[in-house]
Amino acid sequence: MRNSYWLPALGIFGAAALFAQETALDPQSSVKINLASDSPLALLSANLGESRATARGAALVLDLHMGLTLRNTSNKHVRGVTLRVVTQEVTLGGKASVAVPSLDVRAGDAFPVRIDLQLMRPTQAANGPLVQVDLDGVLFDDLSFYGPNRLNSQRSLTAWELEAQRDRQYFKSILAAGGPAALQNEVLQSLARQQERPRLDVRVSRGRSVTSAAISAEHTAQFAFLKFPDAPVEPIEGWAQIVGNEAHAPRIEVKNTSPKPVRYVEIGWIVQDQKGRQYMAASLPASDPGLYLPPGQTGRVLQDTALKFSQNGEPVKVQSMAGFVSQVEFADGKVWVPNRQNLQNAMLLRVLAPSAEEQRLFDIYRKKGINALVEELKKF
Amino acid sequence: MKHPSEEILALHAGGDLGVLARWRVERHLARCERCREEIAAFQSVREIVPDLKEIPEIPWARLSADMKANIRLGLAAGECVRNDQIPATPSPLFNGARAVVAIASVVTLMVTGLVLEHPAPNPTVARQQGIVVQKMARGIQVWEDGRALELKHAVSDEREVFYSVGAQGSMRARYVDPESGYVTINNVYAE
User: Fold this and answer.
1) Which of A173, A222, A313, B184 lies at a C-alpha separation of 20 to 30 Å from A186?
2) Chain A window 240-269: which residues touch B at a Cβ cutoff of 8 Å?
């Protein structure tokens, strides 16, 4: 008699199964990994053990879990790698990448890179490899670079490496002056600041943004600027359009105060809400890929996007905005990042996240203690 | 601290919890940042749901009909097997229970169909068109017209993931991979 309870339920589950049919993905046909023949990295293994495709109604959800092991086949130390993830027709205007900075991979050594991604697409989409993984760039310890650089990986990896050198030097100087106790004190203070750092959820959209009449009228807000004495570029003035908790069309005028031409400028964007709380909202890069700013000349950093701010699901209305120069790339490929003195500003200490290298070093401290951190700093 | 399940948080994000359950969750949220972030992520997903209903490729009516047909098929199959295996003596209690299960299933289907066909209007929320980059519960996503690409991260504690946004339409999630110890930076771009 109990069977009779089960059978109708089986009918329901059978119907539900139509909406959630799960199948394992064939690694050979679903992922293609492209490394050029002259690449300084070789693919040792690619594990797609748990990758799956699930039909949900008329959509197909693909979960891809890739564990790649790459070997440094060059004769230099690798400091950073960026892999580009291309999904063919899945997202028409979208792409992704996975970068691993703060590396120290010697010639001949191997290192892992994990890529976990989920794709959602209509079931009737075309066949073919679902995902292609390309090498976009490799940065070496002498700051030389290899790769097609489609995602401007050279600039990103170089900036991360300069930040890593800067922060290791800073922590080494504290260690030299005050020993492990002083270093530990510095780490604990920084970790405490990170606990207190306010976090803002930001959603960015390109294309048309339709807002309802219920939202208050748009107004123009002006940036205030935090200026660093050694920055090669000086922000002059800037604005963004504000509608409630949404900001769009930010634009900032900058002047090249250095003796060298500049080809990229990035401005850090801080917003303050109506209760006076400050948040790191975004970075505002120059939109023009062909930007060329000779010494003494002014240019504009602008973007045609909309940013919506919230915290814990509640909208965060923008009261005022501040900006600072966070990255500059010269025409010769050299990169400038703020120094530690610049970052000691009280507002920046409150809102900025630690650098990638600080994050790595603090992770070593939390898992292995101060002695392990000291040993790690000695390696460089 | 015991956290509410993901299902409970999702229901709370949509305002679908009962009074008592909602009160319990709100008490928990007042002292749990992690769950507040989960709620925020669910709410950001809900904002794009009204867009999903406009995807022309999803024939909700046909899918609903298919589900009903499959349930009828399941019920009919159950009846055949029952006739083969069970003695002819009917049980009034059992017949009533079966009918309740069948009716409840059909009612559930009809309600689900109605909800899917006629989602509640949400006139106060700004509706984004074009391509969107946003943070999700365990990753960052680029979304366009019902298609999405999401890079997930391998860290369970959200406080150990640092998100940053590029105003040109990009988002980063930076974390230390728990297995390798390497900093990993996931990026999605709406360009």
Assistant:
1) B184
2) 246, 250, 269
Residues of chain B contacting residue A120, judged by C-beta atoms under 8 Å apart: 146-148, 150
Q: How far is B19 from chain A (nearest CA, A)?
A: 20
**How much is the pLDDT for A244?**
87
**Among B37, B67, B154, whose Cβ lies nearest the Cβ of A114?**
B154
- Name the minimum distance, in Å, from the CA of B16 to any CA of chain A: 15
The tokens describing A299, both together, are 């240019």
CB contact under 8 A, B94 and A354: no
Mean pLDDT lowest for which of A287-301, A320-334, B85-99? B85-99
CA distance B167 to chain A (A): 5
User: Do you know the residue count of chain A?
Assistant: 380
A177 touches chain B (CB under 8 A): no
Mean pLDDT taken over chain A: 88
Strand positions, DSSP E, chain B: 127-128, 131-136, 139-144, 147-152, 162-166, 170-176, 183-190
Highest mean pLDDT among A58-72, A95-109, A283-297: A95-109
| Beta-carbon separation of A94 and B188 below 8 A | yes
CA of B29 vs chain A CAs: smallest distance (Å): 10
Q: Is the distance from CB of A78 to CB of A105 less than 8 angstroms? A: yes
Which residue of chain A comes nearest to B83, CA vs CA?
A: A4
- Give Cβ neighbours of residue A331 (< 8 Å, ≥ 6 apart): A260, A261, A262, A263, A292
CA–CA distance, A77 with A210 (Å, rounded to integer): 49
Interhelix angle A2-19/B92-117, nearest 10 degrees: 10
Which class in CATH covers the domain with range A201-209+218-352?
Answer: mainly beta
| Nearest-angstrom CA–CA distance, A48 and A68 | 9
- CATH classification number, A19-150, choose in 3.30.930, 2.60.40, 1.10.8, 3.30.1490: 2.60.40
| Sequence-distant (≥ 6) Cβ neighbours of residue A181 within 8 angstroms | none
Least Cα distance to A22 among A77, A80, A62, A73 occurs for A62
B179/A112 touch (CB, cutoff 8 Å), yes or no: yes
Tens-place pLDDT, residues B82-133: 554 444 444 454 466 777 777 888 888 877 666 554 444 333 333 446 788 9
Partner-chain contact B74 A3, CB within 8 Å: no
Tell me which amino acid residue B78 is: G
- Dihedral, CA atoms, A224, A226, A230, A232, nearest 10 degrees? -30
Write b or e for each residue in B152-180: b if 16 or more Cβ atoms lie within 10 A of its Cβ, otherwise e: bbbbeebebbbbbbbbbbbbbbbbbbeee
Give residues 214 to 243 of A whose Cβ lies within 8 Å of B. 214-215
Name the residue ranges covered by the structural domains of chain A: 19-150, 160-196+359-378, 201-209+218-352
